[in-house]
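Lab notebook, page 48
Experiment: co-folding of the full assembly
Goal: obtain a model of how the components sit together before planning crosslinking
Operator: M.T.
Materials (sequences as entered):
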Amino acid sequence: MPTPQPHPALPARPVALPTLVGHRGRHAMPPFTVHTAASFAEARRLMTLRRARPLAGGLDLLNGLKTGAGPADIVMLERVAGAATIAIADGDLLLGPMVTHDGFATSPAARARVPALAAVWSEIANLRIRAQGTIAGNLLAGMPAYEAAVLLAAVDASLDSLAPDGTSARFPVAALGTPTGAARPFDHLVTAIRVPCTPLRLAYDRSLRPALSVAVALTTRLRRTVSIVVGGLHPRPIVRRAHVSDLDAPGDLAARLLADLPLATVPFAGSPFYRERMAAVLAARLLAELAR
Amino acid sequence: MSRLSFVLDGEPRTVEADPTALLADVLAGPAGRPSVRVACDHGVCGACTVLVDGRPATACSTLALAAEGRSVTTVAGLTEDGAPGPVQRAFIEAKGFQCGMCTAGMILLAEAFLARTPDPTRTEVRRAIGANVCRCTGYRAIEDAVLRAAALKRGAAPSPEPARPDEIAKTTGQPIFTTDLKLPDTAEGALLRSPHPHALVRAVRTERARALPGVLAVLTGADILALPHPTYGLWVKDQPLLAVDRVRHVGDPVAAVAARDAATARAALRLIEVDYEPLPPVATLDDALADGAPPIFDGPSPGAIPPHGAGVTTAKEPAPNVLYRFRHMVGDADEAFARADHVFTDTFEVSRMTHAALEPIVTIARPMGEGLEIWSSNQDPFLLRQDIREILGLAEHAVRVRTLPLGGGFGAKSFCKLEPITALLALRARRAVRLAISMDESILTLSQHAGRLTLSTAVAADGRFLARRATIQLDGGAYADASCLVADKAGYRVGGPYRWEALDVTAEVVRTTTVPAGSYRGFGGTQASFASESQVDMIARRLGLDPAEIRRRNLLAPGEPYRPGDSAIDCDLAAGLAAVAARIGWGERAASASDTVARGKGLAIGFKDAGGQGRFAQARVKVTAEGDAIVSCATVDMGQGASELFRRIVGRVLGLDPARVARAEIDTDQTAFDQGTHASSATAVTGEAVRRAAEAVRTRIFDFAGRRLGADPADLALAEGTIRAGNTHTPLKRLVLDYYGGLSAEFTGEGEVKIEADPAAALNAPIVYWMPNWVGAEVEVDRETGVVRVLHLVTAADAGHAMVPEAVRGQIEGAAMQGLAQALFERLDYADGILRNGTPQTYRLPLATDQPAAFDAVVLEQGLGRGPFGAKGVGEAGILGVASAVANAIEDAVGVRLTSLPFTPDRVLAALDAKAQQPAAEAVE
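Observation: model returned without errors.
Model output:
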């Protein structure tokens, strides 16, 4: 089957209007066309042919349009068959791209298979955003303070997607790039978030958001492995993993794993190095919590 | 356009809509649901929350197409047989709202929450409503409302108390705000704003914008120069309607457009070309005051400083980049300092907040006859009429200003703002023009004053205060607005509620190339109280005195003049302090939860004068033949409860159920005059005028009834429209119909209040009343992260006599939340002159989850007020003392003093680090 090609009349780049100071808002949205798709294949085809961006919950995409810039075409995933389902395959939990924060956190399957993650997920965002916002949208919004990437990286989740040529691909969440970076699956259509149902212990501290948040996961399937994920300092979370024999000295372990934490690139209004220092403090506390 | 079908509030509905339209616009527009109001337009505040298939959705961030075939519920859909449903009734019973802008969204959020959590705890409720922003209430009343709603849904009996019309309107989604107003054939206005903090405007080319179909008018600085008075501001009128040759802050308006719709207006803005020549920004106080600093203005500005009283000197534009200087001297400071046992000098820095009122600043101007008819979300209809008359050169009678209730203000909507440029657009377009700015633009329009305050305090060995020297520098931003008056107030208040032998205070407004600063709840008192109450505590600790005791030794007593020549203290400051100290458990120390956290307590007495300067207010009360009353005055209701206050005053005077008293809409052609809704003057000044008007109409009724009944008017009484003379009860209506005939009649009474000028008082008129805010805070400080948690906040204010107790409590709580947010995190974050958090998504506002674990708002009725029936206002009180109480508690907990707001975790940790490196105690001078 030949690879679909973009329509030659379409602009090579998304629409971008000149910035108007203070006018970010719905009246500043550039003209765009909305498409609806009934299947992932149709959505993929529209993305390729029209250079359309997929819209799930829509919060971030629409707010991006309010800056006056954004895609000229949008394809709604809302009516895509299976997009909102939570399924189990190959021992993993598969979350469709329309699965909301609330849908995941309250799902019986999630609570049974990944109880620690589901429990933590009930704490993120707020009632309104949890009902409307999707996990996939949160992950792909490219917002440094968003939390899905931190938590999903901690549990070693990955994304199943359809590439522009229609082929399937899989990306570890921990290896995701940024919407504008080189290592990016952002021209892919995410068809599922794949969460391993590996027994693990998970602890998460979001008390210093948006400055930073830290997740720590401990798995014991083969070897005792600790994952520390720090979000908010960089466009994508920083992930540190190590095999450990015990958690007797959580402060030392956190300091060791985060010793080479690169200096934050996301702007912060506060004192220099505060966030780097707090990453170790919060990680040590979470490790101590898991050790208990 | 396409057809969009869905179930709206239980009824199938099909509307014509652009497929790319947002749900909020479709619901508020063709679907006819004005309660779906966009506030932040960023999905942050939740004011536009609706339910889609029973789940909350942010209508400003949802495509209308997503609702196709689904069930959409707005707050109107929660009514039962046209009456408020259980959640709406609960919000009414618990008074879970003030201005009402967030109310529809909050109610729908609660509806969705309770559907899944029918018997919630307060903690669960707090988390749930933490999704949406309320800038007024402080959230406690909303929590009460949701808990009450849960009870009603479980079958509890509703309160028999009838709901007021405004309560029903706010909870069921009726149009009540200017932003809801839709006039026919109205064009949309928009402003092109400067991207530069400081630049010369070399050229503005508008030809392409003017040629765009649908564009009706384009204005630039050249049009402004042709006006009789092209600038505005309180006292100093230095702000042009549009930049003429220079822009002075990011967001400074450069051009204005009126077009057939909002999208066309913005498209036109993009076609306007501006040649800027950037100039060095003047970002900070130090930048502005440095030798050789670039001047932000080249010459003197129009306007004048009004007379002041004893001990005060003022200067307009006394130095480069200094807008104003206020100096107040009492006694001989040199002599007092010379004999002091101790002198302490400390410097404090205050941050600035944005108002974040949820209703946008919106004006509609419509040409009418020789002039204009204007609707504006503004606190000052008569001042607005005067400003527009002067600026545009119109006759005063030709300018008619109408004001509806405001969806929050907090100072943002005081004095003249965007009304003159809207009026000019309307005159040029020859049709009605609506200018509704976004919350992003509001942030670029006005802010609170940041500042630096250095206090030197001379103290006797026994802790008695002798004298204080203070230097206050307020960052006024680019234009004057109300800055000069704010400087007056900050300077006059910095001594706090204490007795001094001498004071020497200088307060300056410094111009910078940042957002103009102006009125903000507290109006200089917040800044002064933070510095003063922090230093009082620091002095106590340095001298080894109990911080409560040093205050007690120095507090002014009831009846004692605040300063020579001014009015007497009308509250019992010591009693208020004792009440708060008892509630916070002063002197007791609870154990900390772990080694890494420490607990501490702090006290403060925020203090300000209130009621405005030399104010004048009028009121009119009409009584119908039925005995019902209508009160007319120009205090704008913005959630503070002014209308209900006036109803209760009238009801009390006329022996009438307040439910039978209506509040007339504000219209400068009809309404009794008022100098504006400022300085918490509604209760004490306008309320007193209302009381006098009610008494006047009662006198007229008694005179009339006395004549008709052959009775002495002094022997008559009035109750629910019936005249009582001895044991005889005669309906007023019968007397009216007997005398005036079947066409009936009304009685009218007028009242007014003028605070007479008195040069013996420092501010040229005695202060109307005094507004204390006693605060106790208990905090927990995490030594490893610097996070400060407020475990218990007690905040008290003196209402004199609380006419509307629930409104008084709500005002105290709401103001306290603003003060707490300023203490802990809320600020406009400038770096190198660039505002880094100028959007609702990046500017952090307090949420329900930011409340202290225990939060006591205490309404004291000390009975010394000089307002109607002894009442005093409290609207600004709650914000005054919170930050200093928290700072004092932090020092009590971990021994470090934070002198700059806000006390963010990184700052607290830096202070702890500094203390660890330099553990030596400060020496007493």
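Interpretation: Residues 1-13 of chain A have pLDDT under 50 and may be disordered.
Next step: discuss with group before ordering constructs.
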